[in-house]
TrEMBL record:
All copies of domain Pectinesterase inhibitor, residue ranges: 2-137
UniProt-listed InterPro entries: Invertase/methylesterase_inhib (IPR035513), Pectinesterase_inhib_dom (IPR006501), PME_Inhibitor (IPR051955)
UniProt GO cellular component terms: apoplast
Intracellular or extracellular location(s): Secreted, Extracellular space, Apoplast
Family the entry assigns: Belongs to the PMEI family.
Listed name of the protein: Pectinesterase inhibitor domain-containing protein
Keywords, sorted A to Z: Apoplast, Disulfide bond, Secreted, Signal
A molecular-function term among this protein's GO annotations: enzyme inhibitor activity
Coiled coil: none
SMART domains for this protein: PMEI
Transmembrane spans: none
NCBIfam families in the cross-refs: PME_inhib
Length: 154
């Protein structure tokens, strides 16, 4: 899907598109991890890490979805209301990124050097990069919008 027509020159639409891509890829990653949990024979430690990762991916999807809804409330508002909504979005996207990284942390250590780790880590790292990009675009929108709407101090 091409987002260029929807985004245009809008930093808000760019941030929303990045969040949408992040949600979509996180859902896909979560489905992959769930499928692996059902179909692959794993060591108990691997299975525990996979189950934790599934929970983390679910939390990440919830936080990213919450962020998209909150961005819808932002509109082109100004002042404290804008700042409050954007602070919520920034917090939730940052928390989603933490969820991704927590999933990766579960596969750390020498005991986790197999195919399960490689397959999941590759996909989760990609999701984390997309979420990080979305956070950067959200932050850019928030700071640019704040600068455009703040009174000039003398």
């Amino acid at each position: 899907m091409s987002y260029a027509g929807v985004i245009g020159q809008s930093k808000r639409q760019l941030a929303l598109a990045a969040l949408s891509v992040s949600i979509s890829r996180t859902r896909s990653c979560s489905s992959f991890v769930k499928k692996m949990a059902k179909e692959m024979k794993m060591k108990p430690r691997e299975l525990g890490a996979v189950q934790d990762c599934i929970e983390n991916m679910g939390d990440s999807i919830d936080r990213l979805s919450q962020s998209v809804r909150e961005m819808g409330r932002v509109g082109e508002g100004v002042g404290e209301e804008f700042e409050w909504h954007m602070s919520n979005v920034q917090t939730w996207v940052s928390a989603a990124l933490t969820d991704d990284n927590t999933c990766l942390d579960g596969f750390g250590g020498r005991a986790m050097n197999g195919n399960v780790k490689a397959a999941i880590s590759f996909r989760v790292l990609h999701v984390a990069q997309l979420t990080s990009n979305a956070l950067a675009l959200v932050n850019r929108f928030a700071s640019t919008h704040s600068l455009q709407t703040s009174p000039i101090l003398n």
